[in-house]
Write a structure and sequence with these properties.
Blueprint lengths: L2 H8 L3 H9 L7 E2 L5 E2 L10 E7 L5 H18 L3 E8 L8 H9 L4 E4 L2 H4 L4 H10 L3 E4 L7 H39 L1
Helix pairs in contact: 1-2
Length: 188
């Protein structure tokens, strides 16, 4: 198949496919004397492969693009056809990430590629994996080994801050409610 058709099937631009060919990253690809580039064989097809990439803050936006590129290369090697790329900036403990929620509700995906487990969620990864498997969707983790201490510490601080705000907020609310009740009793 021609390189342009192969690139389209893989969900990448022709320029990226050409660069990969030039760098020798496409196994078996060859150039004819007329200058046409061909990739032998058929690409393995997955119904709907989605790349999910996340970083915790805007400061790491460059890392987000690098994450997507690494996942694209992984998908290329595995022969997956990428249908969608979901990029998100937000904490791994935040359970209201808009783009992840949309991806989980959509149910089109048959495979979700993530670089590390914590890119999808900090807690409850196995629950998500089990639920998605029941819907016919597999989560594929590319690198199981990474643990970023700084991000773990940031998440721990966010958890503590969140619980403290809830706890002290409830206590203040209770005091305000008690004061209102006392005022109402005095007015009667």
């Amino acid at each position: 198949m021609k390189l342009s058709a192969w690139a389209k099937k893989m969900g990448i631009s022709y320029q990226t496919a050409w660069r990969w060919f030039r760098d020798g990253k496409i196994e078996g690809a060859f150039k004819t004397p007329s200058g046409s580039i061909f990739v032998p064989g058929e690409v393995k097809k997955e119904d709907y492969v989605v790349i999910y990439a996340r970083v915790s803050s805007s400061e790491n936006k460059a890392e987000l693009d690098a994450q997507v590129e690494r996942l694209r290369q992984y998908a290329l090697i595995k022969g997956y056809r990428i249908r969608e790329v979901v990029k998100e900036i937000g904490s791994g403990i935040n359970d209201n990430r808009e783009r992840l929620q949309k991806l989980l509700r959509d149910e089109k995906a048959t495979k979700i590629l993530v670089e590390h487990k914590d890119r999808l969620t900090r807690f409850g990864f196995n629950y998500l994996k089990t639920l998605l498997a029941n819907q016919g969707c597999e989560i594929e983790v590319v690198d199981e080994s990474k643990e970023d201490k700084k991000e773990l510490m940031d998440d721990l601080i966010r958890i503590i801050t969140s619980f403290c705000a809830r706890y002290y907020g409830l206590r203040r609310s209770k005091r305000k409610t008690e004061k209102i009740i006392e005022e109402l009793k005095r007015d009667d």
